[in-house]
Fold this sequence. Notes:
Blueprint: E1 2-4, H1 7-13, H2 18-24, E2 32-36, E3 39-47, E4 50-56, H3 59-73, E5 78-82, H4 83-92, E6 96-107, E7 117-119, H5 125-135, E8 148-155, E9 161-168, E10 174-182, H6 191-204, E11 209-214, H7 219-227, E12 231-240
Parallel strand pairs: 4-5, 10-11
Antiparallel strand pairs: 1-2, 2-3, 3-4, 5-12, 6-11, 6-12, 7-8, 8-9, 9-10
Amino acid sequence: MRELRDPAAVAAAAGGDELIVWAAQGLRPGVRAWAAGDAVAVACPELSRRDRLAVAGGARAAAGLLRAVLPEVGPRFRPVGDEALLRRLADVVPGLAFAAAFGWMSTAEPVPPAPGVAWLDPADDPEVAALLETAAPDSYARPGGAGVRRWAGLRGGDGGLRAVAADAWSAPEVGFLAGVATDPAARGRGLARAVCAFVTAELLAAHPRVALMVDHDNPAAAAVYTALGFRPRRIAAAWFAG
């Protein structure tokens, strides 16, 4: 096992794997990465509200790397990677339990920004929080949360906030879209698409790619992202049960 100390080395070892490159977060302070054989692992604290251990590579090498990395980072770091790999690792790594499967979607295609959407001011955070509480109470992105940088919003004719989306946990090579929410009374009007188009266009102006995560049981959201050019990949998370 060798430790990787440069973002370019992480990307090269992972063959440019988007999930790994995103998890590396440019190797900001506190992030560590390792490689062994064809496997790569990146431990990143406070990434999408969890201490995460992104892993990629062949199952045998990845299992060995996880066993070697665990004493370095501790069991609070939750592995994340391709679904097939995580299911295999849960079978062969002691103490590792499969948690959930979900989707990673990404795009590098230009997206025309939608009119009427703008970046919000920090003073708008309480209004964003109130909308999330009503429309997306399970959202990992929250105003003031670690790694949550800014919020975009679309207001109605009365000035009230109708839809939001966040730039959160973006890495130099991969911008990240999160915290999408629409007022339940305003759904069906294309507002989620509008705020997602705006944030995606803004992120693509600063990053080569943009990614997001979506639950498999949310086909409406997946359809919005697909219409904007995002393409899916099945990933999953696991955790160390003991």
